[in-house]
Design a protein that fits this description.
Order of helices and strands: HHHHHHEEEEEEEEHEEHHHH
Radius of gyration: 21 Å
Structural class: alpha+beta
Bound molecules: flavin-adenine dinucleotide
Length: 395
């Protein structure tokens, strides 16, 4: 259980939590967890077999509406679900992008046929996605993208390059932003395709990110994508992308939050007994001050997450709210990593695999914070969104 007191006292939520734990105990037992942890760090968090088990038993899409085959769970239940998954170190990487980003955008913009085909496959754990937005000249200014798709009969022919694609070397499909009109204003000439990464003409070059996982440059050389796999109208992709980005920010905020809770638990457990120079660390007023503030901040991150999940569940698109949640949780992770290293001193720099690490994972927590502060749009861009879309300040 978490060190933080839980306010999910709703018996329905607690009953659901027990159900999730029981499923995990059976399908993700200690032995499998140990085997997974023994893998190289870059491969952890990704397990096709586990994703298939989750799909088989209906655990992908717990928050999706029932009409799409989901469980229609409440925001509190969804938060309990991701908390339990995080506590068990369950590897959700193979399906999380499809489940939390692609599926949300498909529900809003997909045709009935696309919903039937793709939502079903994602829910069963059969289609694994990565995201293809960023390019050498298009990051924060995403509408600057140049990868182009030209119509040829019932296919698009795609040429160009994408960058920083998380999981690009592992996924089967990419949610791909392309330019379909060279003449239109930049936001008006973009479309979204769901393309197979196994197609002829796709070259994937992974490289190692600071936090120990790979992301990829992906090259498209005359890659053919069926027109039926375009989501939303041709040249109307900008709206699809902004809605998908909102879903991504909710997901990033959520995954930060659960990681933070877990790390906080480990840190506070250590502080209960640790001594420096014969004195308990827990008695140090500075340590208490920092820990108390972190506990309060985690509760705030959690509230943002519950609100955002609720909005998604209601079919609303939380643009401003998702930006607030993401910027807060992303920066909180960096803050927590720094505080942990301050408290732990040199030992905090030891990785989780080191037997003498006082609390493993803290240096990794700090390195990983970059993901929350840059991926899905940087903190500066989130603040711009908050000012413009939330507070109606001029551009
Ligand atoms: C860990 C990680 C995973 C990622 N995964 C993916 C992925 O799966 N798929 C994908 O497509 N992309 C991915 N990205 C790319 C990410 O979305 C971009 O890096 C991000 O949007 C920033 O773009 P950029 O790197 O081109 O920086 P730039 O846009 O060049 O920005 C450089 C700096 O300038 C600031 N800046 C730029 N414009 C403004 C402005 N208008 N106002 C204020 N400040 C500004 C930025 O905040 C930043 O600090 C990932 C990135 C990281 C770090």
């Amino acid at each position: 259980m978490s060190t933080l007191p839980s306010f999910n006292v709703d018996p329905k939520v607690e009953a659901f939590r027990k159900e999730v734990r029981a499923w995990l105990a059976k399908n993700w037992p200690e032995k499998k967890r140990r085997e997974h942890k023994a893998k190289p760090f870059k491969d952890r968090g990704y397990d096709r077999e586990f994703t298939r088990l989750m799909g088989r038993d209906g655990w992908i899409g717990v928050g999706w509406p029932k009409e799409y085959g989901g469980q229609g769970r409440s925001p509190s239940e969804q938060c309990a679900f991701i908390e339990e998954m995080a506590r068990a170190d369950a590897p959700l990487g193979a399906h999380s992008t499809g489940e939390s980003i692609v599926a949300q955008a498909l529900m809003l913009h997909g045709t009935p046929e696309q919903k039937e085909e793709w939502l079903t496959a994602i829910r069963k754990g059969d289609k694994h996605f990565s995201l293809g937005y960023s390019e050498p000249e298009a990051g924060s200014d995403l509408a600057n993208l140049r990868t182009r798709a030209v119509l040829d009969g019932d296919h698009y022919v795609v040429n160009g390059q994408k960058l920083w694609s998380t999981g690009g070397d592992k996924a089967d499909y990419v949610w791909l932003a392309v330019r379909t009109n060279q003449e239109a204003k930049k936001h008006a000439g973009i479309s979204v395709l769901m393309a197979s990464l196994r197609s002829p003409g796709v070259t994937i070059r992974p490289s190692m990110a600071l936090y120990g996982k790979t992301f990829s440059a992906v090259f498209y050389d005359n890659v053919r994508v069926p027109v039926k796999d375009r989501v939303g109208p041709e040249n109307g992709g900008w709206k699809v992308i902004t809605d998908a980005l909102a879903a991504e920010r909710v997901m990033i905020g959520g995954s930060r939050m659960t990681g933070l809770e877990r790390a906080f638990d480990k840190l506070t457990s250590y502080l209960r007994t640790a001594k420096v120079n014969g004195r308990y660390l827990r008695d140090d007023p500075l340590v208490r001050d920092k820990i108390g503030q972190l506990a309060a901040d985690i509760e705030v991150a959690r509230q943002f997450q519950i609100r955002n999940t609720q909005m998604v569940e209601q079919g609303r698109v939380p643009i401003y709210e998702a930006a607030v949640g993401k910027v807060f949780a992303g920066e909180l992770q960096e803050r927590m990593g720094q505080i942990a290293l301050d408290i732990l001193g040199a030992g905090g720099l030891l990785g989780e695999d080191s037997a003498s690490a006082p609390v493993g994972e803290m240096e990794q927590l700090l390195r990983h914070s970059i993901m929350g502060m840059i991926g899905g749009g940087t903190s500066e861009i989130q603040r711009n969104l908050i000012a413009i879309r939330g507070l109606n300040l001029p551009r």
